[in-house]
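dumping this here before i forget
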Amino acid sequence: MKAARAATPREWAIAVAGGLALAALLVTLLRSGNAPAPPPAQVPATPPVASAPALPPVPAASGTAAPADLALTGLRIGPDGGMAIIRAGDRQFRLAPGRSLPDGRRLLRVEPGRAILATSGGELVLAFPDTALAAPASTPPGGDPTAWRLALSPVRGPGGAISGWRLDSLAGLAPLARAGLAVGDVLLAVDGSPLISEEKIIELPQELAANGQISLTYRRAGSERQARIAR
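structure:
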């Protein structure tokens, strides 16, 4: 077996020079901060998150907007279906469910604080204005007819049609009291026009305010009498 050959002085010089050069390079890299960075860690990909389904749009409220010339001025709820007093233009009408205004809009039902009418465009909701946000409703011509309507009850004939209105109270009806009318009298006609509908009673204070006086035909103890009613 041959003995290993000893390195020559030239080979030793080359090896030493190479080592010095490598050491100088490492020192330079460390001082400049350009040492090679370790490879970035591999982060597992995050699966995409499914987007939440879009919510369906909120349906618009049904019903049509109330016109400016129509307003609710009175309301009563009761086992008989109740009633609503509605101002249309400069006139007021008392409607029970199923009754209609002159323009054909019909009262469907009354609920706390509002009345629902049936129109050609759908249901129309009339409600009392919010007194905290809106100005008070204007007083109808002749004043509020509620006192007249509450003080009178219909008298019906054999066929069920209204033939007059019995005076049950004089509370709030000073013009009738001054003219000598008494509880139990039956109002038959005003200025010759028969009082055969609820609308006629509601219009009485308006006619009295417009004309200053009205001629009232009434029945007492079986006989008809006349009275001049002044405001």
